[in-house]
Specification:
Number of helices: 7
Mean pLDDT: 84
Oligomer: single chain
Distance between the termini: 24 Å
Shape: globular
Structural class: alpha/beta
Helix content: 40-55%
Largest sheet: 4 strands, parallel
Radius of gyration: 16 Å
Amino acid sequence: MRSIVDECTGHSVARWLREQKHDVYSVYDESRGMNDDDILKKAFDENWILITNDKDFGEMVFKEKRPHKGVVYLRLEDEISKNKIETLKRLLWQMLYYSLTSQPGIDQGQALQFLNFENICNYSACIKD
């Protein structure tokens, strides 16, 4: 996944995504202090999915209908990096799981076997039918 990680989401989240071999632009690491308008424009122009916990982006995207390529809005009760990473881990595995099971001839069991899903996270926490 190609993601721009907002400054408030943090360095740890960007580092974890890079460790998972995702293409990441970290505002914290590469352009600290960049304003929200420029972040959203960069994300759109360069085809990044924005990962943020800044509610201003929700207003920009939903209320103002600003163009975007996707926004992962992390509003968690406890916004420590570990919780953000666990939430992203579940989201990414769900996306991959549903992508696999939407392919003709691949059932849930085959997808889980391919992903070795049970070793990554609790099945019931990651897949909600």
